[in-house]
Write a structure and sequence with these properties.
The complex is a heterodimer of chains A (199) and B (504). Chain A has 4 helices and 6 strands. Chain A has 199 residues and is α+β, with helices and mostly antiparallel strands. Chain A has 2 domains: 33 residues; 156 residues, no CATH class. In chain A, the strands form 2 sheets. In chain A, strands 3-4-5-6 form a 4-stranded mixed sheet, with helices on one face. In chain A, strands 1-2 form a two-stranded antiparallel ribbon. Chain B has 3 domains: 114 residues, Copper Amine Oxidase, Chain A, domain 1, CATH 3.30.457.10; 98 residues, Immunoglobulin-like (Sandwich), CATH 2.60.40; 194 residues, Zn-dependent exopeptidases (Aminopeptidase), CATH 3.40.630. In chain B, strands 24-23-25-28-26-27 form a 6-stranded mixed sheet, sandwiched between helices. Chain B has a 5-stranded antiparallel sheet with strand order 5-6-7-8-9, with no helix packed on it. Chain B is elongated. Classes of the chains: A alpha+beta (199), B alpha+beta (504). At the A-B interface, helix 1, helix 2 and helix 4 of A face helix 1, strand 27 and strand 28 of B.
Chain lengths: 199, 504
């Protein structure tokens, strides 16, 4: 190899090395950029924060999650902050359901579901107003939708004795179905046939 | 000239130098054309009585921050500032703010306020977390502040945010969009980059939902955006060649927009359907005017088959993109063929194409035609239990008392909404007969008859069941369910079940 060829190769190698160093320096700023937070994750963090604060005492709540395989509800205990009023307790229990099962059970409420309002009437009917994001995005079908509804109803009735039945609203309006299957036009009382089982 | 007359490059350059130069050139090309990654540039929007302002959000880890001095400069004239490496004090009028680097506690007018995250300093700017806007700003501006935790906009002073709801009605040749605002708005629309932009004037808007997604051949999404301080709705069409006709109605509170195919000079020739089993979409109005055709001899019992979902309501889908509405329609066609072919039943379908009859329309077909049985077909998620078929009968929500038959000699009066409650026993007999027949289907798991408050069964004035097959979900493969051999066996089992139910 002649000295001229060696010089060309040396210059090329040096240019390549400089190029790689520059590229590495450039990429540092891009790769260290914080990952964008999906809305679902942000909501989950807000939910978590809400569950851990706002109440004076911790309460062991029994949450009932759907089990699609055997068409029943499965019980999970959860410590949550326990407010003084029943309406706030309903909201806390719903936020715990939104947070999801710790053992990987299907959701009854999507992680992005927003509880827009809770109202407990004197006759024991709890009116729950969910955002549009509570509809869809979970396991579809007649069976799974039925379990999702009774997961909410049975959980509320089991933890808050004042709740006798539950009426669902979506965006403040009466909805015909939750996601195309279950009739939401009446109030739901707990279903004894879906007696929760412990995992 | 000396250069041109220089010594030619040696052979070793051609052997080694050229490949190296090519490599360098390719590397340079890769670096030049490397796809740029969009950096985050979210803004925090402040709606003030005099208009909207934006402040860029700076995200550090998982916490969003705003520069303190930019916030204050929007509202007040800062009289003085005292800064050290670890603390900052700003005062104006009778007000005073003190912050410490790395400390969650800030002092606002001699009151301690605890923020969600510690104060930071980046690139010479003092940063406070977003909740500063709710917890400290009202004490400094002495104005009401409306801020929703998690939102990236705030309403200050007399500004009252409005909101809106979106309703989409699918038509055969387009879609009608109705956007109802809580306040009167002024609308200005324009088309840009294949999308329609509806500017909402200077009205402060706090959307309950920032994005609406539709499974519709005409509209893909409607998204709210005010990142540049200008509230607007961005309507994204699902395909090219569509027209958008917006009009403002109801005293400026309702925006009605029609999206339709551009009308060609000559009449369109309908395209043949991709799936021979699926007819072209039927306009809903036309479908409501007449009853579907009934196949079979008039003396035979009539079975109404109801393929679930349809039209814009696709139902669920599997991981290969098979839609529930298509799967259950093709299954209904197989069941129809089995029933009509047996010569023992008449059959009518609530839909034979890609239309989406309402629940009441589906039930109306059964009631007007005096059905002997109603079978609705669905596909659903059963988790890991697959293949499975579940038969459901109607069960009113537990809080509703079941209607009882009228005393002898008196007419039975019951509302349309609850008419199925008169047939709960016969529906259970029908469900049991089909469940037992399905049980003979080798390889198919069939749990015991189940009751569910299924909306489509509620108003059927006949024995009625829902059959759900699966597991059918976005993470499953529905190849088995789409195979004609599976569908024929399932149709045969349903025929056997109906035969057993018909026997006295």
């Amino acid at each position: 190899m002649t000295s001229r060829a060696k010089l060309v190769m040396f210059v090329t190698a040096a240019a390549l090395a400089l190029g790689f160093a520059y590229f590495h320096w450039l990429s540092r700023g891009v790769l260290n950029e914080p990952a964008p937070r999906p809305e679902e994750q942000a909501r989950a963090q807000l939910t978590e924060a809400a569950l851990l604060s706002g109440g004076r005492t911790a309460h062991k709540a029994n949450l009932y999650f759907p089990s699609d395989e055997d068409g029943s509800l499965v019980e999970e205990a959860r410590l949550i902050a326990w407010p003084d009023s029943d309406a706030d307790r309903i909201r806390s229990v719903l936020l715990a359901l939104v947070a999801g099962s710790s053992s990987g059970r299907p959701r009854s409420l999507t992680a992005s579901a927003e509880v827009r309002g809770v109202f407990l009437a004197t006759d024991g009917t709890a009116y729950l107003d969910f955002s549009n994001s509570a509809v869809g995005l979970f396991a579809p079908g007649i069976g799974s939708e039925t379990l999702a509804v009774y997961s909410i109803v049975d959980t509320l009735a089991a933890n808050i004795p004042a709740v006798k039945r539950v009426r669902f609203l979506i965006q403040g309006q009466e909805a015909e179905t939750l996601d195309g299957h279950v009739d939401l036009t009446s109030a739901f009382a707990p279903d004894p046939n879906l007696a929760p089982t412990r995992p | 000239m000396d250069v041109l007359e220089g010594k030619p490059l040696s052979l070793s350059f051609y052997r080694y130098g050229r490949p190296v130069l090519w490599l360098a050139a390719m590397l340079a090309a890769v670096l030049i054309f490397w796809p740029a990654r969009t950096l985050r540039s979210d803004n925090f929007i402040l709606y003030l009585p005099e208009g909207a302002r934006t402040i860029p959000i700076q995200s550090v880890g998982r916490v969003d921050y705003l520069p303190l001095l930019q916030i204050l400069n929007l509202f007040v004239h800062v009289d003085g500032m005292q800064a050290s490496q670890s603390s900052l004090r700003v005062w104006f009028g009778q007000n005073d703010v003190q912050i410490q680097l790395g400390d969650k506690k800030v002092r606002v007018n001699k009151t301690r306020v605890t923020l969600q995250a510690p104060v930071r300093a980046e690139n010479g700017e003092w940063l406070v977390p977003l909740d500063f806007m709710a917890s400290a700003l009202p004490q400094l501006t002495h104005q009401p502040v409306q801020y929703r935790v998690g939102a990236r906009r705030i309403f200050i002073g007399s500004t009252k945010p409005g909101t809106f709801s979106v309703h989409l009605k699918a038509l055969a040749t387009g879609a009608d969009i109705t956007i109802a605002f809580t306040d009167k708005v002024s609308i200005k629309t324009e088309a840009s980059n294949g999308r329609w932009i509806v500017y909402l004037g200077g009205h402060p808007v706090e959307p309950l939902e920032s994005s609406f997604q539709f499974q519709n051949p005409f509209v893909k999404t409607i998204q709210f955006d005010d990142q540049d301080g200008v509230p607007k709705l961005i309507v994204a069409p699902a395909s090219d060649g569509l027209d958008f006709f917006p009009t403002l109605a109801a005293d400026g509170k309702v925006l009605e927009a029609q999206i339709s195919k551009q009308q060609p000079a000559t009449a369109l020739t309908p395209l043949p359907p991709a799936n021979p089993l699926v007819a072209p979409p039927v306009p809903p109005q036309a479908a409501e005017e007449q009853m579907p055709a009934v196949e079979g001899s008039a003396s035979l019992p009539l079975v109404i088959l109801d393929p679930g979902h349809g039209g814009p309501d696709t139902g669920s889908h599997d991981k290969n993109g098979v839609l529930e509405k298509d799967l259950v329609l093709s299954l209904a066609m197989q069941v129809r063929a089995a029933l009509v072919g047996s010569g023992r039943f008449r059959v009518a379908l609530t839909r034979s194409g890609d239309s989406d009859p309402t629940f009441d329309r589906r039930d109306e077909v059964a009631n007007v035609l005096h059905a002997s049985a109603f079978v609705t077909l669905h596909a659903g998620d059963f988790g890991s239990a697959s293949p499975r078929a579940v038969v459901y009968t109607f069960e009113p929500p537990a809080s509703v008392e079941t209607a009882s038959p009228a005393p002898a000699g008196l007419p039975q009066l019951i509302s349309w909404e609850r008419v199925q409650e008169l047939h709960l026993d016969s529906s259970r007999e029908l469900g049991t007969a089909i469940e037992q027949a399905l049980g003979a289907f080798r390889g198919l798991s069939v749990p015991k008859l189940t009751a569910a408050p299924a909306r489509v069964l509620r108003s059927v004035n006949a024995p009625a069941v829902a059959i759900e097959i699966g597991s059918f979900a976005p993470d499953t493969d529905a190849t088995l369910f789409t195979s004609s051999s599976f569908q024929q066996q399932l149709a045969g089992a349903i025929l056997n079940g109906l035969d057993n139910f018909k026997k006295p």
